[in-house]
Request: fold
Amino acid sequence: MTRWSLLQVIRGPGSTFIRQLNGAVSSGRNLIGPPDPVSNIRPIKRRDPRNDAEKALHKLEEDIWKFNHNFWSEQNSKFDKCKALFIEKTLSERRQQGNDEPVQKLTANELSAFYKQFLNERYGEQAMYFRCWFQRNVALTWLLLKVRVYNLLRRQK
Reply:
């Protein structure tokens, strides 16, 4: 069974602290789940929206979450597959060179060469992702501002 936790933001003078509360669901709060094993993105169970503006905000947040989850699931799967192939290839090359000692691991320098190659080969994908991510988060920020103003005006009535 998945363990969900409630994150509560506590604002103090000049700083923000996040305290993790485990246990029962409290109404009016979002629940943050454990990270996905592939994408490492945490799922969020959103509280019920109070109005149509919040409903639109939750839909946009969910769309952004799905976008991030899909991209990082695919990216991390590619990374793991390519890394395993690189390790296997490099270790087999070492064995063919006739080293007497058994080789089980790669050095940090060998792995850093793989990391650099992997990122360089996928630079275009990463750049496109970050452009889309930025645009979606600007739209989210704008909608969040509208929701906050709407809720503030509604409270003053």
Observations:
- The first strand starts at residue 5 and ends at 12.
